[in-house]
Amino acid sequence: MQVMRVVDDASRRAALAKGAELLRAGRLVAFPTETVYGLGANALDEAAVQRIYDAKGRPAINPIIVHVASLAAARELALDWPVSADAIARAFWPGPMTIVVRKQSVVPDIVSAGGNTVGLRVPAHPLALALIEQARVPVAAPSANLATQVSPTTARHVERGLGDRVDLIIDGGPTHVGIESTVVDVTGVTPRVLRPGMIGRDAIARVAGAAESHGVRASAMPEAPRSPGLLGKHYAPRGRVILVDPDAMHDVARTQRRSSRVGVISFGAIDGDVVRVMPREPHAYARGLYAALHAMDAERCDIVLIERPPDAPEWAAIVDRLERAAR
Ligand code: TXA
Ligand code: MG
């Protein structure tokens, strides 16, 4: 495995050339997007996509998002292109938005995990866009972490999690959004949010007329797995995560520290063995969240206490990830 750091024009050119060459050769390339690092492979090459599943230990029932560089390239992979898909794409691409449409047969079944839909996304990161353009293929890419672990927001996180399972890591620095894209399914009558993200349901409803949530809180089990990746434990560090109400933080931390090495992720100063004080603004919080969770792993915390954020729409995607981590 090789890490290529992008610091100037020359290193950028070299990393993109190498990355594009490897993708065309059926290899795995980790690259930054604006949300989290992706583990990329040529989406049209079945054997290459199989390598993604193997590297992550990802269940074969979990479909992979395909990244393209333009709306026109996305449409080529879609069997049809609903009006709502067009409205959402025009409003939010490039950006942290994945649109699930019925797939064209050119998209291998392994990408869609046997289903008849495909999730498409035009990422907003310049290195991701340039890589896809130079590779001249659509790029299938889940988050570049082992299945069930915390998504990577730096090249170092990818390296620690996947090591030699990946052929190249393009290091473009820390990612900006910090949590994964919103996934919206437009194959039904009303667009349906399958995975919340920093682009919220209200913003989607404004451009598409209406939008519904998956209607399943992370703490409940869905009756039908519309998006299999949303099942089960996810986004979790190795230590046990407990979501704690603000008023109880001090007491819970004090009690737990008698028997465990305790990590604390809070909005204010709380005593813990490892402490990360987080911003009270949701975008800044999202940007720093996974680095904080990775730090709890690196510091070998047995228990991670996380102060519950406000119950407000702008925090919904963050609370979703925290509740999954706490399962
Ligand atoms: O921000 C992101 O979306 C990142 C970056 C790399 O683009 N990718 C990402 O991929 O988070 P992944 O595989 O870790 O999560 C994708 C989620 C999974 O929950 C998966 O089940 C769901 O999207 N998904 C993908 N394709 C789908 C489809 N055709 N139908 C329903 N859900 C789908
Ligand atoms: Mg993931």
Features of this protein?
32% helix; 327 residues; binds magnesium ion; binds threonylcarbamoyladenylate; alpha/beta
Overview of this structure, please?
This protein is α/β, with parallel strands linked by helices and 327 residues long. 32% of the residues lie in helices and 19% in strands. Strands 1-8-2-3-7-4-6-5-9-10-11 form an eleven-stranded mixed sheet, with helices on both faces. Helix 1 (9-24) packs across helix 5 (126-135). The longest helix has 17 residues, at 282-298. The chain is globular, with a radius of gyration of 19 Å. Bound molecules: threonylcarbamoyladenylate (TXA) and magnesium ion. The site of magnesium ion (MG) has 3 residues, from loops. Magnesium ion binds next to loops.
Structural class: alpha/beta
Ligands (ions, cofactors included): threonylcarbamoyladenylate, magnesium ion
Rg is 19 Å
Q: Number of DSSP strands?
A: 15
Low-confidence parts, pLDDT < 50 over ≥5 residues?
216-225
Percent in helix: 25-40%
How would you sum up this structure in a few lines?
The chain has 327 residues and is of the alpha/beta class.
Could you outline the blueprint of secondary structure elements for this entry?
Blueprint: E1 2-5, H1 9-24, E2 29-32, E3 37-42, H2 46-56, E4 66-67, H3 71-75, H4 83-92, E5 97-102, E6 117-121, H5 126-135, E7 139-140, H6 155-162, E8 168-171, E9 182-185, E10 192-195, H7 201-208, E11 212-213, E12 240-244, H8 249-257, E13 262-266, E14 274-277, H9 282-298, E15 303-307, H10 316-325
Parallel strand pairs: 1-8, 2-8, 4-6, 5-9, 10-11, 12-15, 13-14, 13-15
Antiparallel strand pairs: 2-3, 3-7, 4-7, 5-6, 9-10
The chain binds threonylcarbamoyladenylate and magnesium ion (MG).
